[in-house]
Design a protein that fits this description.
Blueprint (H helix, E strand, L loop, with lengths): L21 E5 L2 E5 L7 E8 L4 E8 L2
Antiparallel strand pairs: 1-2, 3-4
């Protein structure tokens, strides 16, 4: 069984680009872009596969 442990591993996927953040569902496919890290606040999104929801978060610039 230990030969296949890597098949069950979930890795983080980090997405960031220069475009504004958005979130939409199109024909049952949930799509979101957390937006850019550059600007007034550092924003990210956490996706929960069990519920199919993405939660937006941000850390304000100090």
């Amino acid at each position: 069984m230990s030969d296949f442990v890597h098949c069950l591993t979930l890795c983080q996927l980090i997405l960031a680009d220069k475009y504004d953040r958005f979130e939409l569902t199109y024909e049952g496919c949930h799509v979101f872009n957390p937006g850019s890290f550059k600007g007034n606040a550092y924003g990210w999104a956490t996706y929960y596969p069990a519920t199919g929801r993405a939660e937006r978060s941000e850390l304000p610039n100090a």
